[in-house]
User: Which sequence fits this backbone?
């Protein structure tokens, strides 16, 4: 039986979305890839990003309403593999954007025999586009995208969670994880994108085994602050 990434509506939709993302984010990405970035420059850019989103979360991300800010194909395939390996039945995603990472994860749920993904997105226009993209990929029945600030929309979570993707506002990974934490199954995978290593409270927390995680940086997409943690409690 072929997996959902091999061909069909999932592959067709992802191919279209990666083309659209390339076009929409080209100028934005050029700012990050122009020239060599030193450790110090990255630290400064991350600090500025965090200061700006802390000042005005809605306004800051509304400024990126037309940008995908998506995971790469390589990282998306890794998400799919993690969810398959874990036999995930329930997934929570912080930061859905147009739904690229969501499609990889929901495809894994379907290939695991079924399940449910709770997505979260601050920007209503993006949540609407993500829903349409999941429909096009034939995965809409597995996903519910909660619109608004994840700190509110995930406040009434219930049920067990096998995998979490943190890919929203950089400064909110720890509070969002702590909302989901009581629901994590032992052995649950927690993947964080953009968890940059500069006095990061999230990294300090998940890298301390006393908090019930084993955690390390991933070599995939190095430089993008990819952290991989497993719930040990
Ligand atoms: C890096 S993008 C997510 C990319 C997506 N995971 C993908 O691969 O296509 C981050 C998204 O998180 C959303 N976001 C930021 N803060 C949020 C919050 N507090 N609650 C929900 N969504 C948030 C932003 O609007 C933005 O669309």
Assistant:
């Amino acid at each position: 039986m072929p997996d959902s990434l091999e061909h069909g509506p999932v592959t067709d939709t992802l191919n279209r979305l990666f083309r659209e993302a390339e076009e929409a984010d080209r100028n934005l990405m050029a700012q990050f890839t122009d020239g060599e970035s030193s450790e110090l420059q990255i630290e400064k850019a991350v600090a500025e990003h965090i200061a700006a989103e802390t000042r005005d979360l809605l306004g800051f991300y509304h400024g990126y309403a037309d940008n995908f800010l998506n995971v790469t194909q390589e990282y998306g395939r890794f998400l799919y593999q993690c969810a398959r390996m874990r036999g995930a039945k329930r997934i929570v995603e912080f930061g859905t954007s147009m739904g690229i990472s969501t499609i990889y994860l929901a495809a894994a749920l379907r290939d695991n025999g079924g399940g449910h993904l709770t997505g979260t997105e601050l920007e209503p226009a993006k949540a609407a586009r993500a829903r349409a993209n999941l429909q096009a990929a034939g995965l809409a029945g597995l996903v519910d995208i909660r619109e608004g600030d994840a700190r509110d929309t995930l406040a009434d979570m219930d049920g067990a969670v096998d995998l979490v993707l943190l890919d929203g506002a950089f400064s909110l990974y720890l509070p969002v994880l702590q909302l989901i934490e009581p629901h994590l199954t032992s052995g649950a995978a927690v993947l964080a994108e953009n968890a940059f290593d500069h006095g990061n409270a999230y990294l300090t927390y998940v890298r301390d085994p006393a908090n019930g995680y084993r955690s390390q940086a991933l070599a995939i997409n190095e430089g993008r602050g990819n952290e991989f943690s497993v719930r040990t409690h």
In short: The chain has nine helices and seven strands. Strands lie at 90-94, 116-121, 143-147, 161-166, 184-192, 213-217, 227-231. The mean pLDDT is 94.
